Amino acid sequence: MEKEAKDAIKYIGERLNEKIREEMANGLEGELLSYHTDDAVQGINQAALSRRRYTNGEINEDAFTKSVYQLIGVKLPKLWSGEFKIVGVSEQNGITVDAAKANIKPQSWLLYAQKDVSLEENAFDAIAAYPTEKDAVNMVEKLRLVDALGTENLYDRTLMLARIKFDRVFSDPSASEEEKSIARETLEDAKDLAYAPAQSTSDIPLSGGVPARVKGVNLNKVITMEKDAQEAIKYIGERLLKPDWEAARDLVSSNERKGFVYLAKPNAQYAGKIIMMSDTHLVQQVGKNSAVAHDLSKLENGAELTRQFDNNEIKIGRTNIKVEYNQDRGKANIVTYNQQRSEYVRKQAEKWAEQNITNSKSRAAFLKHVHAFTQDMAKGQEPAKPSQEQAKSPVKTPTQQPQPQLSR
To answer: How many CB atoms lie within 10 A of CB 231?
Structure first.
């Protein structure tokens, strides 16, 4: 009986791992394809289908490379390894040279694709030239998506997509630290899913253990995991439904850049305005092109927030909130304009004082007045006026330093 139970748990665990990989791959696929035009997405998907048919032996390599050329616009070398490199080049004395090695500015960028490395070391063929590096990088991402989406193995596909996301974020100079952190964690999660061997049934407790939540898939009703698995939990709550996720992403997208919508993390704090409410989630803008989706079932006052929204007490695009999480739950508090403004003023003043007031006593006295000022501002009151005694003995700060502009 014990063996049957262990076998059942092993089977369920394997199916769950497969489900997690599938959801992760689908999420990455949707996000990465969203950065490309509809025509490009159609070409990528059709070329990926050809890649899969070629791998399965339904078509030969010539048919596959011809399909990529027609759909994507570049001709891949035979026995393509899936790797690329981009080289900035310039004309020097009538010869095309590597601009970096010649220490000159690139005039164009050549895209190289690698053939099967077993044939020849560093066997790269030039397949296209582009006027800007951005154009070359964009083409590389398209071809990497063809390779990933054309891969049958779900484990490999998930890892390939996670690597594409990682490279996209870390090559973007405007990417925030939060975006980089999420891209890094996504890649690590994908590696764990792709490389970790199936857990031995002897290591899985038949009872007890710690109910785990991995990447938005609720495992509580199906299987329990050991305590060390809890440390791998990185997100709180379930994912948004795809239509809601797309709507939320559009709200924080701009002409220059697609938006990002994340799940909340344990032990984190978020502040910003509410931009969307669904039946299951509250979406909060936390950056110019980023938002966090809060699972209402994971907020202590989720039901109250829903009631406030239904009663028009929460105004979309106007109501600001601060959300604080512990390991697995959070609480949202509505922040008034005065509270938000006072927090901004306080932080700016503290930053200025740290950089400009070198005397510690003077800095402490200055910040004491700033804190009193911002506390009154947060309450919607006039800032407290100094007493006569304070007025007679003003705090001295270095006269050579400009005073910060505290606006209300």
So the answer is: 8
